[in-house]
Specification:
Elements: H1 2-43, H2 59-74, E1 78-91, E2 94-106, E3 110-121, E4 127-139, E5 144-155, E6 159-170, E7 174-183, E8 188-195, E9 198-199, E10 204-215, E11 227-239, E12 245-256, H3 258-266, E13 272-283
């Protein structure tokens, strides 16, 4: 009996020894893994928020990628052409073709901007007014651009002007364009345009528009008196067949003021008139 007990004790010790070996090896492996993880954490600290890719790519590669991203999103060049008014005006048997358009090209901050406005008699084929402006435009806020450049008047009395103005979107979605002009003869004039798109439906739009012109002095060769010279106030109803193409009908009151009105009456013209309009508004 004693012999059996001794053999049983030896067998039990062997079993415990056999089990102890793998557990010991597992503990050593676990310790090595823990030490290895700690060393890796020390060598590669967590990247700064927003720059996680820097931990995997070289500095040169990241700089190149960021420059490409700026070109795609923040420094992309775009352009547009807008004919805001291209219309026939009719009053008392006289018919005229009037245009008011602009085009620009550039990035989010700096653009090259062109504007043109004019009036041609459809009865005689002669131009009464025609001008072209070439401007540099710089964004001074999310909604307004500061503009400066030159303006050339083809008609009447070909003349050049320096231009300084502001154009943008005022509160409540009013489109505003205000400019001052200094001619090569020293004459100072100004113009203000305000318009608003009132959407009756998704395609039918009523646009009130007003334009006012000013002069700092009498300009005899241009039949202008000092102060407020003239105002055009109209309503245009357009239907957008496409967003880029919309025919319209409208009516506009055109009036002269102060010394300009007196000069017009001396020449046998009325100081004000109401004209009926039909035209097209388009952009590309």
């Amino acid at each position: 009996m004693t012999h059996i007990n001794k053999r049983w004790s030896q067998l039990t010790l062997c079993c415990f020894a056999a089990l102890a070996v793998p557990f010991s090896a597992l503990a050593q492996t676990s310790g090595m893994t823990s030490e290895s993880t700690e060393e890796t954490t020390v060598e590669k600290p967590a990247p700064v928020a927003g720059q996680q890719a820097d931990a995997y790519y070289s500095k040169d590669e990241m700089e190149k990628s960021r420059e490409e991203l700026k070109k795609m999103l923040g420094n992309r060049k775009t352009g547009s052409i807008l004919f805001n008014q291209f219309e026939a005006q009719s009053v008392n048997g006289s018919e005229d073709l009037y245009w008011n358009g602009q085009a620009w090209y550039g990035g989010d901050i700096n653009k090259i901007w062109f504007k043109s406005e004019g009036l041609v008699s459809l009865n005689s084929g002669k131009a009464d007014d025609a001008e072209l402006q070439a401007l540099w435009s710089r964004a001074i806020s999310p909604y307004f651009n500061l503009q400066t450049g030159i303006r050339h008047d083809f008609k009447p009395k070909g003349l050049d002007h320096a231009v300084f103005g502001v154009q943008g979107l005022a509160p409540y979605w009013f489109e505003v364009d205000v400019s001052g002009y200094l001619s090569t003869k020293g004459d100072v004039t100004a113009r203000a345009e305000i318009e608003y798109d009132y959407r009756l439906t998704q395609r039918l739009i009523l646009q009130p528009r007003i334009e006012a012109n000013f002069s700092a002095q009498d300009i005899a060769e241009r039949d202008l008196g000092s102060g407020l010279t003239d105002v055009n106030a109209g309503l245009r109803m357009r239907y957008e067949i496409k967003r880029q193409f919309a025919p319209y009908l409208g009516v506009e009151w055109q009036g002269k003021f102060g010394g300009t009105r007196d000069i017009a009456k001396l020449a046998g013209n009325s100081g004000d008139q109401t004209v009926f309009l039909v035209g097209i508004r388009s952009w590309y």
